[in-house]
Amino acid sequence: MKKFIINLLVFLGAYLAVAYPLQWVVDTGLKKSDFSNEYKEWDDITKSRINADILIQGSSKARLQISPAEFEQAFNQSAYNLGMDGQHFRVQKWRFDVYLKYNKKPKYIIQVIALHELLHDELDYNYTQFIPYLNEGFIQRFGGHGFLNDLDFYVPLYKYCHVTGMIEAGATNFFRKHDNRHYKYKGFRPSAKHWTDDELIAFKQSYPHGMNIVIDHTAYLDFIDLVKRCKKENIDLILVCPPTPFVLQNLILNRDSVMGVYKNIANKFKLKYLDYSRDTICSDTAMFYNYDHLNTRGVAVFNKQLINDLKGEIR
Amino acid sequence: MLFNSGEFLIFYILVTSLYFACPYKFRWLILLAASCYFYMAFVPIYILILGFTIVIDYFAGIFIERTMEPHRRKMLLAASIVANVGVLAVFKYFNFINLNISVLLHKFNYHNPIPYLAILLPIGLSFHTFQAMSYTIEVYRGKQKAERHFGIYSLYVMFYPQLVAGPIERPQNILPQMHAKHPFDYNLMVSGLRMMLWGFFKKLVIADRLSIYVNMVYNHPKSYNGSEIAIASIFFAIQIYCDFSGYTDIAIGCAKTMGFDLMKNFNRPYFAANIQDFWRRWHISLSTWFRDYVYIPLGGSRVSTGRLFFNLFIVFLLSGIWHGANYTYVIWGLLHCLYYVTYLIIKPYLPKEPKNQTAAMLMRTAGILLTFALVTFAWIFFRANSVTDAFTLIRGLKTIGAKPIYGAGSSNLVHSLIPIAILFLVEYKMEYLPQKFNLASQNVVVKWSVVMLTVFLILTFGVFNGPRFIYFQF
């Protein structure tokens, strides 16, 4: 039995000695790849390449709708869009914590708030973006790991089994020298698509009697925490509620009380609060490509308006 | 508890360590407790069903042995079989029979007053019931002494590696091993672990990967063209083999690490050159069970041709029903009966194996391909969700030339085909070149590299959230 135990330990040691370098190769390759549409931003964050004066935060409603280039031009300050596709506030705030670990604090944060921002969050959606960063340590600190389990963190190479093609993407991109991911500018990527009813119809089928939004208390406390932290660190936090088509807003039964939560926070902490959810643009579906997002045409109109409204605020 | 779960990994390490750490006389207790825990991890209350059959068969065995009078012995055996089959009938076939009664009565405008049972099928019920029955039958035949140690007998039925999906053991093989001392054996431990690893590879890397495509097509039979149905059916043939033989490899390997030698259940069935050969290689523990306890008592092959075909019909019908209470399994069994009978009829007219090696190889390859095609066709009924679906799929095969649109993605296709190629190479080597490249006789670098590569493939290409073992439902 002694021989078996010794051989087993030596085998495990040999396995780790091979597996960890292999994992490093795949992780490094993935970070350079576009296997997940968030790798570019994570790479920028963890390599301290952002250090923006104006940081735009939020979900896809930030990512697809607020242009850092236009902010840079208008205010002559560096800007970066950290909007995360499909993620609610807790994950956004958590990414902001990671951002601060590697980058200088911003002067301004444009926090995009939407009806669904304070919903319950797990690392379930688009979780491939986290895979190469599991060993950075910060993911363990997030309250729930969602789809990921302990084996992903502690058994080398196991984490790639969840998504087909990931290991190949990592291995092939490891040898790529140049970053040719040009489809976004500083995290921003608008959509040129035209409005279709399909997603709205699907939403109506899912919620035939309308939807009630339930605010997650932990997310709410996290939001307050961000506000307090910005106050303490002298970061100007600006809350922006972007345009949302009325056809969707009419389906949210407690829309006013959800927006009231943001309004109360803004009033209590004396924050700049810009609400575009009642603007005329919201009645024109030609400005949107689905029930939740503006298209390039709508983005141009909205950004012009937003920059104009922030002229006294951002100096 | 599933073999392909992290929970089982911990369970296995703990149980095996405890097993070797304990004095010999307590080891049966460790295994029995572990087996109870293992079984109760599914539906705890169902341990009572097992307990019921164990008690019945334990005492039946002792009384059969004690009784000299043939009629009483027969009655005791019948009581034991009725109890076992009764449990199967209630939990597995009651609703099926009831549904058929309802359909029949409905035709005559009558309402069936018998309610349906809202029960889950106990996991592996057909396996441990058959294993329990083989004990009383063997005691009755005088080929096995009745087991006096209640704990050991319970362990015979409940031994966790083969409790839920076999191999269906015979008492002559396993009971003496339960009494024997099994000191730690390095070679058994290593070869058992290797076997488990290969089982995990077959299950996680091949079977569960293929199941993604198979489920997609078989759950929406009208949505796919002939090529896609053909691919899905071939994939299912490989999936079910890798799923079941993967489970068996894990079970046999797991038992082997503790010094137990379970019977072989698969012998590279897709290398069978005819249907008779296939049934000598597929689910051996079940086919030999039917041979020993149904086919031979019916007269076997030493009867008239008509009677022989009738015997085969009964065996294949029972084999189909054994798999589940659904007409799809019945048709699957009867199709195999048809293949088998046809083969027996044409066998005398088939050409003798040519002396020329190339011609012999070509003939054998043709036989293998034809057998595989027939078996795969029968699997359509086995896998289809209903008989209607099966016929929809078969009708869909008319467009077999259509361009397949691989819905699960080309990356998934690559991930499916490469492991299949590995499986084919390994099985080809074992079938035709058994003496060449024997892993155990290689140097440590080669041995460890092969094992490490297998671990890498399992960890990175395995599907860990896949379905449970197909045969668990039986």
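DSSP finds twelve helices and five strands in chain A.
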